[in-house]
Write a structure and sequence with these properties.
single chain; two-stranded antiparallel sheet; 16% strand; elongated; disordered N terminus
């Protein structure tokens, strides 16, 4: 096991390096309407800074209602001036690895429109409408492609390593405003660090013991005080024989609450599997 964890850590380090290179280039997949209309960006309306990170477990294939809920929660959250980053994470196997699918910042309206020529205003307003529609399409399409196809079997679920070694550093790098992580996963770890399975179903875990394993494997991290919301926890397909009762789910929630607390974040809501609150 020790050898496997070392190899996994090396793999994670390489992924982090590639992500940092991407972020170092200030990637923005959303074209600026201020640049397009040739309007000074200093005239933009100032809003509180928010960055929504949507991390979707690529080993997870929930039903249509859960998938629709993810779309709804994200679209309901996004406002002008927000940043959004969509991350697909999975196991460290071919075609199933962590990657940033979409990232960018939406513009806000012009604060003092009286100082802008009408021709430029029309060009800017037209761009803003197109930008909103573009972001909605890109968000929806990237969320859709992040879920595992039903016909594909991925034996491992590397939630801990992806969160602590890849996703947390990305979130922590944004050190201003509110950071929100929407984590879409059944939250059932199955890796070299630990497994929450027994006889192909969720077992009753001991949160303190599991946290000790995580600490020993150096899988805690720093989420820079991000707010965490989960959709899909404990989800299980209706055609399987597994059963996830209240005691098992309580222990699962307690583990993840402790994990995020130790990793400088707060678990605000744990959707089992449906998220009942707004972010």
């Amino acid at each position: 096991m020790k050898l496997s964890i070392k190899l996994m850590s090396l793999c994670c380090s390489l992924v982090i390096s590639s992500f940092q290179a991407v972020y170092g280039a200030d990637r923005n997949d959303i074209k600026s309407c201020y640049d397009y209309a040739k309007v000074d960006p200093k005239t933009a309306t100032t809003v509180p800074k928010r960055h929504l990170f949507v991390a979707i477990d690529g080993t997870f294939s929930p039903d249509l209602n859960i998938k629709k809920l993810v779309h709804q929660k994200v679209q309901l959250f996004i406002q002008p001036g927000d940043e959004i980053t969509i991350i697909n994470f999975s196991a460290y196997v071919e075609d199933f690895y962590t990657k940033i699918l979409f990232t960018g910042k939406l513009n806000t309206d012009i604060s003092d429109r009286d100082d802008i020529p009408k021709k430029l205003l029309r060009k800017f307003d037209n761009c803003m409408g197109q930008q909103s529609a573009y972001v909605q399409r890109k968000v929806d399409s990237n969320i859709m492609q992040s879920f595992k196809p039903d016909a594909i079997d991925v034996p491992k679920t590397e939630i801990l390593s992806n969160l602590s070694q890849v996703i947390a550093p990305i979130i922590a790098a944004d050190n201003q405003g509110r950071r929100v992580l929407l984590l879409v996963s059944d939250m059932v770890e199955n890796s070299d660090v630990t497994s929450f399975y027994a006889s192909n179903t969720l077992k009753t875990i001991m949160p303190e013991q599991e946290i000790a394993k995580v600490q020993q494997a150096n899988m805690l991290s720093d989420f820079n005080q991000a707010d965490i919301y989960v959709i899909g926890a404990g989800w299980i397909a209706s055609d399987t024989k597994g059963f996830r009762g209240g005691e098992k789910m309580l222990q699962l929630k307690q583990f993840w609450s402790q994990y995020f607390e130790h990793s400088n974040a707060k678990l605000k809501a744990f959707g089992q599997p449906v998220l009942m609150v707004d972010m």
